[in-house]
Write a structure and sequence with these properties.
This protein has 293 residues and is an alpha/beta fold. It has two domains: 2-143 and 280-289, Rossmann fold (3-Layer(aba) Sandwich); 144-266, 3-Layer(aba) Sandwich (Rossmann fold). It is 32% helix and 26% strand. The protein contains nine helices and 14 strands. The protein has helices at 10-20, 60-76, 105-116, 129-132, 144-153, 169-179, 222-233, 252-259, 280-289; strands at 2-5, 23-24, 27-31, 37-41, 50-53, 82-86, 120-124, 138-141, 160-163, 182-190, 197-203, 210-218, 238-246, 263-266. Strands 2-1-5-6-7-8 form a six-stranded parallel beta sheet, sandwiched between helices. The protein has a six-stranded mixed beta sheet with strand order 11-10-9-12-13-14. A two-stranded antiparallel ribbon has the order 3-4. The termini are close together. The structure holds ribose-5-phosphate. Ribose-5-phosphate (R5P) binds next to strand 12 and helix 7. Ribose-5-phosphate (R5P) binds at residues 93, 165, 168, 197, 215-223.
Length: 293
């Protein structure tokens, strides 16, 4: 198997190739003056199997189009099985119709990727099982282990792990188990029209304890900031924030720090100036277990 490392995942892709011993297929891409995107593979891919790695991080629509073009270029030029790794799947939060008249965007994205020629897809900590169900053939990759290693190295053994939303408790529990800590959750409600978040205590017992809040995505930071306020009011001694996919819209990172976080961890599924954890080892291990590598 060879790899095609898309422009949105150059750092993570490089690490995966190095850990898995994958040779990269070269390609060029450019944007025409009118905004359209162009991709060209620079080597013969006849009969080759490829792992195509491209995050759908911001700008989501451009990165989706590049992924579709890379898959299509590979398949229409004689490529063999196309395995696609999507470190961050955009539109996954629109995984059902919340208000009448909406599309299920997650399933639309999945269908587009399959229509381009993806034979199988691996998703890193996708927002929900419902979003992943849009694909006919998908593997889900959990990367909490990469975060646990960091926290164990940095004095957070037995810390209290909090989900900023009851629906995110299973991830918090996984991390808590790995660092032998406790787990709690915040009750979050989001106004479906305005997007505004309000949070109340769900089950929280952080008094005097080192605390980690972990969520899948940080976008505006509103969810995390609400959780920080609650934890501070209940006496948490130190609050570290972790997310798998850090989008950090506008000044979200600074506002989270100003709210009282002692550190913010975010992975390279979305490559930003704030990415400080790599999920490469969890990804390679899982793909090996699933027989992809
Ligand atoms: C929502 O269901 C996600 O899991 C995140 O909690 C959400 O996307 C975070 O968004 P924000 O940072 O804008 O509050």
């Amino acid at each position: 198997m060879k790899a095609i490392v898309g422009p949105a995942s150059t750092g993570l892709g490089e690490k995966i190739c190095s850990l898995a011993g994958l040779e990269k297929i070269r390609f060029s891409f450019k944007q025409f003056p009118d905004g359209e995107l162009y991709v060209r593979l620079l080597e013969d891919v006849t009969g080759v199997e490829a792992l195509i790695i491209q995050s759908l991080s911001p700008p989501q629509d451009r990165n989706l189009m590049l992924l579709l073009q890379l898959i299509s270029a590979f398949k229409t030029n004689g490529g063999g099985e196309a395995s696609v790794l999507i470190p961050y799947m955009a539109y996954a939060r629109q995984d059902k119709i919340f208000l009448s008249g909406e599309p299920v965007s997650a399933h639309l994205v999945a269908r587009l990727i399959e229509a381009a020629g993806a034979d199988r897809v691996a998703l890193v900590e996708v927002h929900s099982d419902a979003a992943a169900k849009g694909f006919r053939n998908s593997v889900l990759i959990e990367v909490t282990g990469s975060f646990a290693e960091y926290y164990l190295r940095n004095g957070f053994e037995k810390a209290y792990v909090v989900a900023p939303d009851k629906n995110a408790t299973s991830r918090a529990k996984r991390l808590a188990d790995m660092i032998q800590g406790g787990v709690g959750w915040v009750e979050k409600t989001r106004n479906k029209e305005t997007g505004c978040v309000s949070s109340t205590e769900g089950q929280l017992n952080p008094s005097g304890r080192k605390t980690i809040i972990i969520d899948d995505i940080i976008s505006t930071g509103g969810t995390i900031i609400e959780a920080i306020k609650l934890l501070k009011s209940k006496g948490a001694s130190q609050i570290s924030v972790a997310c798998i996919h850090g989008l950090f819209v506008g000044d979200a990172y600074q506002r989270i720090m100003n709210a009282g976080a002692s550190s913010v961890l975010s992975s390279d599924t979305v490559e930003t100036q704030y990415s400080n954890i790599s999920v490469a080892s969890d990804v390679v291990r899982t793909l090996r277990e699933k027989g992809w590598l």
